[in-house]
Design goal:
mainly alpha, Fic-like fold, 12 helices, 61% helix, Fido, Fido-like_dom_sf, Fido domain-containing protein
Length: 298
């Protein structure tokens, strides 16, 4: 990589991406300027973490009502409860891993996987080995002709099948490359790709590689949240993109990911637009929370 350049920067110039980035930035700034944020920012952060965790768990097949997630204390009884508990642990600890993320993102990914599956799992935190299958990213197989759950930017056309992840050796090499790219960004004071693009690439790459034997979706979405905090777009973690991903629907999520896996300009634009739309819906969710707090409803 040439000194002073960011290999992700060209992605920010793909069709529709500059407009999506600008729109998200405007909406995030408006949310941060809400009068509730002056007095109750910590409460908004906590509510965002809860709602983001609920949505991330829903994308992994544990679609619980928000109030059920809020009131429950036992998250170890069955598979769905464990998924919700894992999402809550990841959401709660994401902001505490920033300093390590900036110097060793691979260490953070291992920590996130450990949080997701629990330290009683002997495979917790370690990458997949040769011959070990990656867990499915979605709670069920979608038929190739299933339509999207919304009319979002990734809707329309057949869903298609996800290809298998690369072999472990390639996964390790690509993770090292991603870590190097992130470390280089940490040393570059200004310039380069915007935070939304970086977060979307980290998210997409982890879904593509599926480095762990389980919980890859939960880990990828938690990593995206960390990037949005670390890159300064959402430093207080009040914009739950996971909520938007769930609202746009699993089929649209899968279709957008296929665009990332294609690696074409059109496919990458589709993925970046989907991530931008999801973050925008997360901003809308927290804006509604702020409005409710202002009216004394929360």
């Amino acid at each position: 990589m040439t000194t002073g350049t960011d290999p992700l920067a060209p992605l920010a110039q793909l069709a529709g991406v500059p407009e999506a980035v600008a729109e998200v930035r405007k909406n995030v700034d408006r949310l941060y300027g809400h009068r509730v944020m002056r007095r109750r920012a910590g409460e908004v952060t906590s509510e965002s973490a809860l709602r983001g965790a609920r949505a991330s768990a829903a994308l992994d097949g544990a679609d619980w009502p928000l109030e059920e997630v809020r009131r429950r204390t036992d998250f170890g009884a069955d598979a769905e409860a464990r998924t919700v508990g894992a999402a809550l642990r990841l959401s709660a600890e994401a902001g505490q891993l920033l300093s390590v993320w900036r110097t060793s993102p691979l260490q953070v990914l291992a920590r996130l996987h450990l949080l997701a599956v629990g330290d009683g799992d002997p495979a917790a935190g370690r990458p997949r080995h040769d011959g070990e299958p990656a867990a499915p990213l979605f709670p069920r197989e979608l038929a190739a002709t299933e339509g999207p759950a919304s009319d979002g930017p990734a809707s329309g056309g057949p869903v298609g099948e996800l290809p298998p992840p690369p072999p472990p050796a390639e996964v390790a090499a690509r993770l090292d490359q991603l870590a190097g790219l992130l470390a280089a960004r940490a040393e570059r004071p200004t310039g380069g790709a915007p935070a939304l693009v970086v977060a979307a690439v980290v998210h997409g790459e982890l879904l593509a590689l599926r480095p762990f034997g389980s919980a890859n979706g939960l880990v990828a979405r938690a990593a995206q949240r960390i990037v949005l905090i670390a890159e300064g777009l959402d430093p207080k973690a009040i914009c739950p993109a996971e909520v938007g991903l769930a609202e746009l629907g699993t089929a649209a999520y899968r279709r957008a990911l296929l665009g990332y896996l294609e690696g074409t300009p059109e496919g990458l634009s589709r993925w970046l637009a989907h991530c931008a739309a999801a973050l925008g819906l997360g901003v809308r969710e927290s804006t509604a929370v702020c409005e409710a707090m202002q009216r004394g409803m929360v």
